[in-house]
């Protein structure tokens, strides 16, 4: 039946579509319903905007890759296709969060550094 291959294809396509939706219509304000929502992303409007922009682009990219793994699954046994799809889904979900959070952490450090420099220059 190749359910494993179909799982990878369906999840990959869903990733791509969700990423495309956020990319085309990013949430205008920080909210708890729509978009890339983590405590760090929701802590500042600039971080929120970057999380939506960068996260949606990665989601589309990773959706394409997960779909490709699903297609490869058609040449494997069902169990191997399922394992391959599940590994791809879990790996790229973790990779999405680590890359976006890393980018936001770097941005947050730069913003804190600029705030510190501004407060030091005001104090002089």
Automatic annotation (TrEMBL):
Residues 97-124 form a coiled coil. The keyword Transmembrane applies. The chain crosses the membrane at residues 6-23, 57-75, 81-98. This is SdpI family protein. It holds the Pfam family SdpI. Keywords: Coiled coil, Membrane, Transmembrane, Transmembrane helix.
């Amino acid at each position: 039946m190749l359910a494993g291959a179909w799982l990878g294809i369906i999840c990959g396509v869903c990733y791509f579509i969700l990423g495309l939706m956020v990319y085309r219509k990013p949430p205008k304000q920080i909210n708890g319903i729509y978009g890339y929502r983590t405590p760090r992303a929701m802590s500042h409007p600039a971080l929120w905007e970057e999380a939506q922009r960068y996260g949606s682009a990665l989601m589309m990219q990773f959706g394409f890759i997960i779909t490709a793994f699903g297609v490869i699954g058609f040449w494997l046994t069902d169990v191997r296709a399922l394992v391959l799809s599940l590994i791809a889904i879990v790996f790229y979900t973790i990779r999405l969060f680590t890359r976006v959070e890393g980018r936001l952490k770097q941005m947050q450090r730069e913003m804190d550094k600029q705030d510190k420099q501004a407060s030091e220059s005001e104090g002089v």
